[in-house]
């Protein structure tokens, strides 16, 4: 026979999806009048829009500009606990580089400390450059000895003229 019963359970901090929480003596009655068994709660943890959990560690991405990545910068990043921590990006930081904040991850449900928070850097390349920005980036590339084959955005009629042989 099925029935609905409300129970209060203490869920330890740091449990993850699929972990079981045991409530001793809260299950069905035993056979032939034996003592009740245990009730197990299977946890399902809701995902977070900013943090991705991997064990006791959490990962997040931050976007930085090309200049911040190249020159180095200090950026404030949110943590799980509502505070911000300052991460110092080293000069020459690359896209995908990871910085870690020790002890800012999930608490271990067995009481063995906390995981870390890993900050994954996403370097954003500017998409709409002013004429001056384009000129400065070209000069920068030339100073570094980089060869640029700049693709000019041709209009529809210029493309038609190219196809027809310049008529």
Number of domains: 3
Number of helices: 3
Overall number of strands:
8
Instruction: Tell me the CATH architecture of the largest domain.
Output: Sandwich
Radius of gyration: 28 Å
- Percent of residues in helices comes to 10-25%
CATH topology of the largest domain, by name, is HSP40/DNAj peptide-binding domain
**What oligomeric arrangement do these chains adopt?**
single chain
Strand % is 25-35%
SSE order: EEEEHEEEEHH
N/C terminus separation: 87 Å
Which structural category fits the helices and strands? alpha+beta
CATH superfamily of the largest domain: Urease metallochaperone UreE, N-terminal domain
On the 0-100 scale, what is the average pLDDT?
90
Global geometry = elongated
Q: Give the spatial strand order of the biggest sheet.
A: 3-4-8-7
Q: Biggest sheet: strands, sense, closure?
A: 4 strands, mixed
Unreliable sequence segments? none
CATH class of the largest domain: Mainly Beta
What does this structure look like?
The protein has 167 residues and is an alpha+beta fold. It folds into 3 domains: 7-46, no CATH class; 52-125, HSP40/DNAj peptide-binding domain (Sandwich), CATH 2.60.260.20; 127-167, no CATH class. The chain is built from 3 helices and 8 strands; from the N terminus they run E-E-E-E-H-E-E-E-E-H-H. The model has no long low-confidence stretch (mean pLDDT 90).
Please supply descriptive tags for the structure shown above.
167 residues; alpha+beta; HSP40/DNAj peptide-binding domain; 4-stranded mixed sheet; two-stranded antiparallel ribbon; 3 helices; 8 strands
